Amino acid sequence: MQxxxxxxxxxxxxxxVAFALTSPRVVAADKVDPVADAKAFRNYFFxxxxxxxxxxxxxxxxxxxxxxxxxxxxxxxxxxxxFALDAGxxxxxxxxxxxxxxxxxxxxxxxxxxxxxPYFDEKEGKVVTLELxxxxxxxxxxxxPYSYVKDEMASLTAYMAFTSRGKPMDVRIPDDPRALAAxxxxxxxxxxxxxxxxxxxxxxxxxSPGERIRAEILAPALGILNAMPIYRSEWSGMGTIxxxxxxxNSQTRAVPLEPQSDEYRDVEYFLSYVANGLPISxxxxxx
Length: 287
Prior knowledge:
- 43% of the residues lie in helices and 7% in strands.
- A three-stranded mixed sheet has the order 6-5-7.
- Mean pLDDT is 90; it is low at 1-27.
- Helix 4 crosses helix 6 (151-162) and helix 7 packs across helix 10.
- It has helices at 2-22, 34-48, 66-75, 82-93, 130-140, 151-162, 177-191, 201-205, 241-251, 262-273; strands at residues 119-121, 126-128, 212-213, 216-217, 230-232, 237-239, 284-286.
- A hairpin with a 2-residue loop joins strand 3 (212-213) and strand 4 (216-217).
- It has 287 residues and is mainly alpha-helical.
């Protein structure tokens, strides 16, 4: 009888552990401390790379390699994202069929607000990214939404990022257990290994920034979204934050999620919050 009871308790314990590991939105929100997490996250990079100026982390691999940085600075005289910037500016100012524009959907007419996205919508109880807000603006005005990984969305976010250049990232986490849960879920997604290569986001961008994978120098996670959207030579074009997340999953041979899924929105929330205080540098350019 005692043996059967032990087996039963053992099975129950295993089931509880399995449930905890496979229930992505169940967190002990009262133990979440974003302020302490962000401080530890930033200090890790500051101590690991003491020669890198703090604000330079937003320049990704160029902050890790002097030769690459010099070449990039020369390219910035005629940046490859310039065509997207011009297109985004024109799209932003062009009225919808009902006569309204994107400016009608955003604080300050959408100018200089990139640093405040994503934000936690307390009415909805979820994270709202800039890409999502732009498509909601389109739909509210009778327009079809854009693809989250194609040129139109990249051009719009490029223009909005440009109007915020130099402003410090300023993402807020309200005193709401759902916001804390979103932050914690984003953090967990960032550190969870997945795919055939068994890599997490942190495997490349926390453990190995500055090192090479083939010809690519890995960027630090700190400030990695401040430069978005970006022009990538390997894409021969612009890419959104959504496209970058999907690509990262594919590169580790994991199954990508749907763009703007809750998990991707939460990991964007986590990465943006820990970069608070660092300047917006988007749109960016990468090899």
